[in-house]
Design brief:
Layout: H1 2-9, E1 15-18, H2 20-27, H3 32-44, E2 48-51, E3 60-64, H4 95-102, H5 115-124, H6 129-141, E4 145-146, E5 150-151, H7 155-178
Antiparallel strand pairs: 1-3, 2-3, 4-5
Helix pairs in contact: 5-6
Amino acid sequence: MALFQLWNINRFKEKFFVVRDEVMQLSKIGSKSTYHRCIKELHHWKYVVYDPSHNPYRGSKIKMLKFETSSGQAEVHNRPKNETSTGQALVPKYKHIQTIENNKNINKLDQPKNEKEVIDFFEMKNWAKTEAQKFYNHYQGIGWKVGGKTKIVNWKATAKNWMLKAEEITNNKQQSHFKDNLKTTKNKNYNEPL
């Protein structure tokens, strides 16, 4: 749109010169790399003819292509010979939309179907049903993400880590019962001097 405005200012000349900073300001592009990528894509798709200038005092040359309008219906040129149609020409969807539709399951979180599946997995590993319920309720509550941020790729691996951590916690609790943090003895002899 910025190029069209500049073309309009230049009275629709066949070729005109543009200054990168001016085009960037009009098109609200803040990065030089984004500007160059966009202008090269416009050139590649043949919306404009872009002739870059390496001279800072002379802008790049742009040739805008005229897209004529017609009163008739667009015709389909690549239709098989035996097929005839009087309907409207079909326009394909954009590539990025097709890519998103084809890859819908890529971003899907790996999670169990229900709580029973988790309980069965924990029982298979010889763990209590309550621990399976704790695991399921915890990750169900945070949307099946590790730390609330990273998507779970394999919920069974996460469950195994849960089991390892639970073992570690119970071992630490058991050891703390036998540990004397103050380093005192229960059979104290009060006759000894300090």
